[in-house]
Write a structure and sequence with these properties.
Distance between the termini: 28 Å
Order of helices and strands: HEEEHEHE
Strand order of the largest sheet: 3-2-1-5-4
Radius of gyration: 13 Å
Number of strands: 5
Structural class: alpha+beta
Number of helices: 3
Oligomer: single chain
Shape: globular
């Protein structure tokens, strides 16, 4: 079962209250077949713990990795995964879709 939006935002709030670095990843655009709709979220803490979903397969692993960089640098990133990328199969988008995910640090 996927976490509700309220659970994801509550986790972000709780982790920040504990003094942890936190990032929020949001699906901002999809094309073709995509496992999660625009607006789907994944929250990640500085230890790599996460809640929510922005895709399936290894895309989330790649997003978590990028989110750790965002937490460290404070600089947001726009990520794109899709059939045009040679990494598409590696990250689990063999279904023929493209997704764009915006990752930002939660202050």
């Amino acid at each position: 079962m996927l976490a509700r939006d309220e659970d994801i935002l509550k986790a972000a709030e709780d982790w920040r209250a504990q003094g942890k670095g936190v990032a929020l990843a949001t699906v901002v655009e999809t094309w073709g077949s995509a496992p999660r709709p625009v607006g789907s979220n994944l929250v990640i803490d500085q230890d790599g713990l996460f809640l929510g979903s922005v895709s399936g397969g290894c895309v989330e692993g790649a997003v978590v990795s990028e989110a750790l960089d965002v937490i460290a640098s404070g600089e947001p990133k726009m990520l794109e995964f899709g059939v045009a990328d040679e990494a598409a199969w590696k990250v689990g988008l063999s279904c023929g879709g493209t997704i764009r995910v915006f990752v930002e640090k939660v202050e």
